[in-house]
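Morning, I've got a small favour to ask if you have a moment. The fold is given in discrete form, as structure tokens running alongside the sequence. I'd be grateful if you could look everything over and explain what you see. No rush at all, and the record is pasted right below.
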Amino acid sequence: MNSHIRRLVVLTLLVVSSWSVSAREYLGHQLEENALVVNTDEGMLRVAFLSPWSVEATFTPADGELTSSYSLLPSLKPIGGNLTEDPASLRFSQQGIEVVLDKATMLLSYYSESRFLVREAKGIQAQPRRVAVDFKLSPAEKIMGGGQRILGMDRRGHRLPLYNKPAWVEDELTYEANFSMPGYVSSNKYLLMFDNAASGTMDIGATVDDILSFESVGGRSGYYVVAAPTFSGIVENYTELTGRQPMPPRWAMGYIASRFGYRSEQQVRDTIETFEQHKMPVDAVVIDLYWFGKDIQGHMGKLDWDYKFWPTPINMMDDLREKGVNTILITEPYILTTSDRWQPAVEADVFAKDAEGNPYTFDFYFGNTGLLDVFDQKTKDWFWEIYQHHTDSGVAGWWGDLGEPEVHPDDIIHVDGRGDEVHNAYGHEWAEGVYSHWRNTYPDRRLFLLMRAGFAGSQRYGMIPWTGDVKRGWGGLWPQVELNLQMGLFGMAFQHSDLGGFATENWVPEAYTRWLQYGVFQPIYRPHGIEPIAPEPVFHEASIRENVRRYIELRYRLMPYNYTLAYEAETRGLPLVRPLFFQQENLDLIDVRDTFMWGDSLLISPVTAPGVNEWAVTLPEGHWFNFWDDQLYQGGGVRNVPVDIQTIPILVKAGSFIPMVDDVMIARDYSSEKLTVHYYHHPDITSAEGYMYEDDGETHGAFARGESEKLMFKSGFNTEKGLAISFTAERAGEMIPDGIQRTVMDWFGMVPGAVYEGMPEQRRITLVVHNMDEVNSVTIDGDALEGEYDATKREYRVSFDWDHSRAIVMIK
């Protein structure tokens, strides 16, 4: 170590040491509005429980004020807690979390059910243009978080910039992030979120091994801690505070055609016709920036059709809608000074300002521009008039691009602060404006909102983020699982990627094929890329097209299962892409970055290397079946699974119910009237349960309105009685006078009429039991059934009509 580095290390250690001993002076405390308020010589420390499992700490300097939270639900109020005091400390506790304040050091420590979580190494510091706080990490503690990075699941040892910025995604050590996240989830089972949207850093033991430091150029001087007995419970408790992902329309989970970009109305019509000719499912088309100009540069901010190339856009959208294809348009928050919209926007006073109060203008790639001040309500109202006009004309969904924002000078002034002080909340507030107006204008209709950047809590505005301009080829493909897993831990349930890769002409047919196979198990299926390489499989050779078609058709057959995952995102906050360590709370699986659970039943391990005939797959404990051939694998280690160019590893957890429907070309024609329910039997599984959620696929909050149903599946097995599988229907009913929502269950034959449009009066159920010994008899509610047994597959198949009343199939 040279002398310069040695002096730097010593100085750093001295600074850290001085932080730990230069404490604020405790002056007293009181309970105010259910919060613990601690008075100090420097200002006010406030500790408040936001739920039985979460607590917020904020500090307001004596000569300052506390800025508002972007991430927390505005409706949250402190719920109070139990306060005890001794001469050395204050203890403030709730059901699942406890805070201990050391009066001598003024540092906070956190516990959950008597289990230590974390403690401050330095309390919250709040000065002009600087907010900071440090935490002491446990020796073996692993840290996940920070947003879209490619660093491995454990981010410890890295110093992460917290500044939303367009990033090329390829290979290792990507520190920049389209969507940064100023928080982390610990292997010690807690989540800590720095509730601060300013430009900053999160140093996770990079400078000092056992210190996690947060620092920003301003913003809210506070953070909150969330605990739970399980990792999935942490996500649920966190999204209880920040909001949950509203279900998108069902069509959003089908194939979405997209490229950069369709240049004319005729090209869009021809593209959809090509899908039809090849009998390839398609539910939507995304029209990039050429809808308002023939060139990339010089047109941004027009936000109206270029009628030379799009002569009849309303007719086009009507014609597409007749085919079941929805239209999605791109928008950006920049208005060029050369645009016809510039002067009206200036007069409407919707731009961020310079120091003199004039619209701030600057040059960037697309031209000389101003930036909309989406923090200002009048700007949100003005912008919404454009969205509403086009929505009423036939646009079904929206894409907000460049919302980091891509170019955002620090000295630009928004109503909420300077550029760097509010930077990471820009996309968040843009989404809020669209979502809130959509809810008011179209209260019954679900929103599709694709956006590249946001902040903690952006999921509550229906934001569907993607991983940015990823490169084509293997280098862009293999990191995608890690990116999805990291964002899903923070409620961003619909994180996905440009399938096939977006940029460069480094197109590798095998990598493209593998990416689109893996895409079946991403929340959104949207191949997207730059020309001249077509992202749509219909424009590639027959071998690629047919291979990919098989997977797209599988995605549509899995719609009941996938749609249920979207329901769980809205009601529980759970991501669709889930880490393996959610299974059995296994800490040994935290570092797995290439394999994931799609829901609780399907394990997916994308093939991300060329020319392989087997793939090493990490399996949690338990029994796992190969989806393709029912081969049984014992979990608890790495298993080599055979693959070819037609297959990727898809494994089904024993005891799982997988509902599927017949092939369908568009979500509009979806129906579960004919439903196949696969049950993966193993004699070690003596009981199991599953369900699928159904509604009309369009109505916002259908389940809360009582316009939905759940189909419940349960199994019970013992060697003497055999296998019993029950089917019940749980229907949401009307509100009874005392305001409690009545759920009508058909356990006693109480079967109401249809509660949502398209609900089948009865279903033709085909039950497929995998891994089954030869069957001697089958009954349904005591009546004999005839089925088919395939000895080669060890699979039993039986069909029956089901009218929603409780039914039990007994197999011996």
